[in-house]
Amino acid sequence: MENTAQQPVVRISKLSKSFAGNDILKGVDLDIRKGENVVVLGKSGSGKSTLIKCMIGLMDPSEGEICVFGKNIAGLHYSELNEIRVKMGFLFQNAALYDSMTVRENLAFPLRHHKKEFSAEQIESRIMESLNDVGLAEAIDKMPAELSGGMSKRVGLARTLILKPDIMLYDEPTTGLDTATAKEISKLINDVQRKNKTSSIIITHDMTCAKTTADRIVMLKEGVIVAEGDYDQLEKSEDEWIKSFFI
Fold it and tell me: In what helix (H) or strand (E) does residue 241 lie, and over which residues does it extend?
């Protein structure tokens, strides 16, 4: 894990989001720096998933701004928003692989869509690099149904990394995995950060994952950031709600 003091790649300012009069996010301020892993902790319904959906432009804020690489994404045209989305990788809880495609075809899909200038040799080289990064080169011709849950998650990560994103968003990356596999995924998150200087937001309930990956932890309670710091600082908190996460 590493920290840098550069200008933020993501700046969230006074972000609020409401649905039918129900306030989900309430004035969230958050900066993400280059090469930083930020873990977002909070109980179900605290607004964690809404925060990520606003970041990638799937939802518009009710109030406030989200600036990614200096651009307010709410004001962008579709083509400009897509340019930014290509620089943002999203690892879904369920890996979201295409069941009818082999691992190779799953990884080739985003390259053929976003890197039309790539030759067949360049596509194959990038596929092998991404699979080697997650330790699954031998799975290249398997179908998703032949993969374990941990393997599917790693292939999903390889497919996300294949476009070499500057920002990674991880939504519960270790959910549903056994302890050993969950530790592997946490290690891979750190490997990605070190290799590519990636900035990451990691939403998790897994405190081992949080401890392993976080440069900084942000705690979200009922749509408000109530605490932030590193794992050791927050673990020593006297606040009963914060302490409940570290028991």
Answer: helix 240-243
DSSP letter string, 71-98 = EEGGG--HHHHHHHHHTEEEE-TT----
Convert the pLDDT of each residue in 68-109 to its tens digit.
999 999 878 888 988 898 899 988 777 678 999 999 999 999
Look at the chain and count its residues. Answer: 247
Q: What is d(CA 168, CA 171) in angstroms, rounded to the nearest whole number?
A: 10
Cα gap 99→144, rounded to integer Å:
6
Torsion angle defined by CA atoms of residues 181, 99, 136 and 92, in that order, rounded to the nearest 10 degrees: -50
Tokens of 64: 């406030």
pTM for this model (two decimals): 0.89
Distance in angstroms (rounded) separating the CA atoms of residues 42 and 48: 7
Q: Which residues contact 63 (CB under 8 A, 6 or more apart)?
A: 14, 15, 16, 27
Look up residue 220 and give its two tokens: 């979200």
Choose among 58, 60, 68, 43: nearest CA to 168.
Answer: 68
183-241 pLDDT tens trace: 999 999 999 999 989 999 999 989 999 999 999 999 999 999 999 999 999 999 999 99
Residues 189, 165: contact at Cβ < 8 Å?
Answer: no
In terms of Cα–Cα distance, which of 234, 227, 196, 194 is closest to 213?
Answer: 194
